[in-house]
Every structure is written in structure tokens, then in C-alpha cells.
Amino acid sequence: MENERKLEEFQQKIDANIKIEPKDWMPEKYRQTLIRQISQHAHSEIIGMQPEGNWLTRAPSLRAKKILMAKIQDEAGHGLYLYCAAETLGVKREQFLQWLHEGKAKYSSVFNYPTLTWADMGAVGWLVDGAAIVNQVSLQGTSYGPYSRAMVKICMEESFHQRQGFEIMVQLAKGTKEQKQMAQDALNRWWWPSIMMFGPHDSESAHSNQSLKWKIKRESNDELRQRYINKTIEQGHHLGLTFPDPNLKFNEETKNYDYSPIDWDEFWNVVKGNGPGNKLRINHHIKAHEDGKWVREAAKAYSEKINLSKKTA
Amino acid sequence: MKDELIDYCLRLGDSSLILSHRIAEYCSKAPILEEDLAITNVGLDLLGQAENFLNYAANLKGNTTADLLTFKRREGDFRCLHLVQTPNTDFAFILARQFFMDCYHQILFKKLLNSKDETILGISKKAIKEVNYHLDRSSDWIKRLGLGTKESNERIQNAINDLWMYTDELFTDNSTDLSMEKNKIAPLSSSLKDEWSQMVVNTLKDSEIEVPEDIYYSLKYGKDGFHTEYLGYILAEMQHLPLLYPDATW
Predict the structure, then answer these.
(1) Computed over its alpha carbons, how large is the radius of gyration of chain A?
(2) Per the domain annotation, does B249 fall within a domain?
(3) Which alpha helices (DSSP H) does B62-117 contain, by range?
(4) Which of A12, A150, B67, B141 could form a disulfide with A81, with the two C-beta atoms 3.0–4.6 Å apart?
(5) Would you kindly state where each structural domain of chain A is located, as residue ranges?
(6) Residues with Cβ < 8 Å from B71, sequence gap 6 or more?
């Protein structure tokens, strides 16, 4: 009875758009869903540093190198906000990392695709960050206070990332024949993965309904996906590039772009970590973490010594 | 004098550029996320300093740009110090290299605030603020590693020992140094050594790290255009795209 009353009050708060804060009562399933979602989001930021870091030492101009470096730094910062937000739910960062390394926690599978040319730095910024922003703008209104506030900060920086990516695409599309080919090839490879970032169709999504009711998610996967497609097609036409989908056309009735069926076999394969990308990303993270173990131990031992000498002084 | 001034700007610009490149190689490999953020910040500052000095060198030279100097110059025309070319062997090496360079930069940029050359003065004014923070960070880490655990003490001691010989170049004068000093643009490199040694020795001693003996470094120097074997690989990677697509602009 007690729990039912609490649950009712909780839902009333949600319905009244009052944010849930760390010390407030919340259903265990709400807490678990947030732990899963926020840590997955944090892991995505951190793993996402790798495909871009892959081109940092080969950025072809000083300006491009500076911008890419700043962008990767932002991603580390986003990871940090999000781990902090997730920690308010009672789980330590070290635990989140362990779950990631053991394959128990996921990250956005789009980062399992390789970045093969410089144009991928454009396409990742334009398409992958572009898709992420649509989702994140919506999540600014999420019901959990710390997550919502982290999203507000992140969205400000993400819009700069998307512009950075689009700028690279503009430059390549206006460049030599080879540069234009590079841009088209990147669009061909990143278009479908970016569409799949929104997850399964609403009818197939395991967590959607409850998450919408609790306002963890504010809009459905398909609504967000359609918004992304609509805005991105216009930008692609501006670049003079073509999208790898023959069925892409504006539907006067729905005022949306129609698109071909998504290849869900590929999506689930990548989500399950099949293929070399997942191994590469996770092994890189595990290695960095293990290589840094002695440094973390040193920092801990040092701070204990300092604290001890302060106490005895 | 103009040639020497260009050479001096290339020395400072190239050294920051290559150090920043080594930091870029370390992207997403730091021991904790906070350190990924901090070290990238240092890399970004260094890249900005490099761009400023290379822009100035390009203006003085004429008919070139900082990008052309970075991406289309041959190895022998680079003037970076050997120390910044050394690899990211582990966190201790990255840190020791950074600490040596941060001390050097802080002392140098402070002196360059008296430069007769307004551009160098301007760049140094901005750089000194950044370098103060870099040195705070690296000297804190030297202490943490030196006083942390037995393993961390051994590792940082090993890195300090191995990199010590490269610091010799920081304080050796060549004809460029003599010209810069004569024209009141920059101090002699040799004039920075005492202050640097004092700063480094104090931090090492506070951190229970032994100060290595000076060894005569028998090779020729990066600031004279003679490099380590490492630089060729760094440039092969860094310059790859502009060299592969010579007609493209990026």
C-alpha cells in the first residue's frame, strides 16, 4: 500500500513536470533504467573519442587539428558530466567502467564503425552528432534532474560539433574531384548507421513505453528519427551530395521524407558486438585503463599521505 | 638578422607543434578521464602557440603560411628540440617530458616579455598564462608519482633519468641565439639554465626523485635541423594527407 501511494505521488510529480532529484523517492525500475541509459550515454561519449582520435594526428590543417582536438576534449567532458549524473543514482564510476569492460553495459554501436578517411571526420560530426543532438535536445526535458541539466550543457557544445562536421563536408564537397568523392563515400557509409542510432522502431522497442510514461524519454524513437532525416536531407542537398537510399522522397501528405526499410540484421549484429569494431574499441579502453592502474594507485597513495600529514600537523 | 628571427620562431613553433602532436597521439589513453581532459587542454594550448609562432615565421618569410610550414616542409627544415620528439613510452615519460618543457617555457616566456620584438612579446604574453597552468599540473603530477607508490617512484625516476640527456639542448646557444640576444629579441638559451635547474631540482627533491648527473649529449641538435629517428615518423603521419593530395585545400 505504502509503495502504491508513493508510486502514485511519483507519477503525479512526473505529470506535473517536476524534476526528480537524487534524494527523492523513485521506483527501483526508474532508477535502473536511468543507470542503464545515462551510463550508456556516458560510455558512448568516451568510446566516441576513439574513432575521431584516429584522425587527430592526421588532421590536414592546423585549424582542423585544433577544432578536432577541442571537440574530442568536449566529448571527454560530456562523459564526465554524465558519469557524475549517473553516480547520483548510487553507482560509482569504477563500477560503470567494469560493466563496460565486461560487456554488460553498452555504448552507441555507431562507434563500432571504422573512420577510414578524413571525410569521416566531417560525416561523423554532421551525421552522428547531428543525430545525437536531435535525441539530446529532446532529453533536456527528461524527468531526472541531474540528467536533464547535463543534457542542457552538452547540447550547447554539440551544436558546435555538428557545425564543425558540416564545415568539413562543405569544404570537401567544394574541393577537388577526389575530395568530393571522399565526401560522398563518407556519406554513403555513415547515413544508415546514423539513422539506426535512434534504435528499433517504436513497435519493437523494449523500453519505450514505460520510459515515455516516466518522461525519461520525451519522444519516441521513430519521431526523433524522422525529425533527423527531415533536417539532414536538406543539408545534404545543399552539399550537392546524394543519399544512399533510392526511396528517399518528400511525402506531401505527411510532410516528412519517406525512406527505405532499415536493415535491422546489420543493426542487431553491430549492437551485439559482432565484427572487429567492438573488440577494437573495448580493448583500447581496457588497455588504457590497465596501463593507468599504477598512476591511479600513486594518486590515491599520495592523497592519503597528504591527508595523514594534515591530520597529524 | 631576419633569417635568425625566422629560425628562432620555427624553433619555438615547431617544438610546441611536435609536443602537441605527441599529446594528440595520447588521446583517449589517459589513466583517468579527468586527465584526458587536462592533457588535451595542454595540447590545444601548445597547438595555439605553435600556430602563432609559425604564422609569424610565415609572414617574415613571405609567400608561405603556417599550414604550408607545418604540412609541406621537409624534416631537415624543422627546428624542434629533440626532447619533444621522444615517444609516449608511458605516463611517466609523458609527464617528465611535459614537466621539463613546462619549466623551460615558463622561464623563457617570462624573459620574452622583455623582447624588443612586439609580435614575440604578444605571443609570449598570452602563452605565459597557459604555461603557468601547465606547470602547476605537471609539477603536481611529479609529486604524486614521486611520493605515491614504490612503482610510481621507480617509473618516474626511470623516465627522468632517460630524458635528462635531452635537456642539454634546451640551454645550448647556436648562431641564432647569439643574434637574438644581440638584437634584444630573446635571451641566450644558456642564460636560462640556472633558473631551470633550480626549479627542476627543487621539485624532484621534494618528490624524492634523484637528480641525474649531466651527461654530454654527443649528437647534433634539433634546433640546428638534425633530428632524432622519431621525427620522420611523426611527419610521415602528420603530413600524409596534404602530401597525398597536393592540389587540395583543407
Answers:
(1) 21
(2) no
(3) 66-71, 82-85, 91-112
(4) A150
(5) 2-274, 276-313
(6) A60, A61, B238, B239, B241, B242, B243
Query: How many domains are there within chain B?
Result: 1
Please name the helix (run of DSSP H) or strand (run of DSSP E) that holds residue A160, with its range, or none.
helix A145-173
CB contact under 8 A, B155 and A294: yes
Written as nine digits, the cell of A311 is: 591530520
Whether residue B34 lies within 8 A of chain A, CB to CB, comes out as yes
**Torsion angle defined by CA atoms of residues A72, A76, A79 and A85, in that order, rounded to the nearest 10 degrees:** -130
Distance CA A154, CA A148 (A): 10
Going by C-beta distance under 8 Å and a sequence separation of 6 or more, which residues neighbour residue B210?
A: B157, B204
Q: How far apart are CA A194 and CA A174, in angstroms?
A: 23
pLDDT in tens, A31-85: 999 999 999 999 999 999 999 999 999 999 999 999 999 999 999 999 999 999 9
Closest-CA residue to B171 (of B150, B147, B195): B195
- Domain carrying residue B232: 2-244
Torsion of CA A41, A46, A50, A51, to 10 degrees: 20
Residues of A in contact with B35 (CB under 8 A): 292, 295
Sign of CA dihedral B79, B84, B88, B89: positive
Query: Which chain A residue lies closest to B45 (C-alpha atoms)?
Result: A66
Q: Which residues of A115-140 are buried (b: 16+ CB within 10 A; e: fewer)?
A: bebbbbbbbbbbbbbbbbbbbbbbbb
Q: Predicted ipTM?
A: 0.96
Q: How far is CA B52 from CA A98, B48, B65, B206, B225, in A?
A: 43, 6, 11, 35, 21
| B250 part of a folded domain | no
φ, ψ for residue A207, nearest 5 deg: -105, -5
Q: Do A56 and B27 touch (CB under 8 A)?
A: yes
Best to test chain B binding among A291, A295, A303, A308 (most B CBs inside 10 Å): A295
- pLDDT tens string B132-163: 999 999 999 999 999 999 999 999 999 999 99
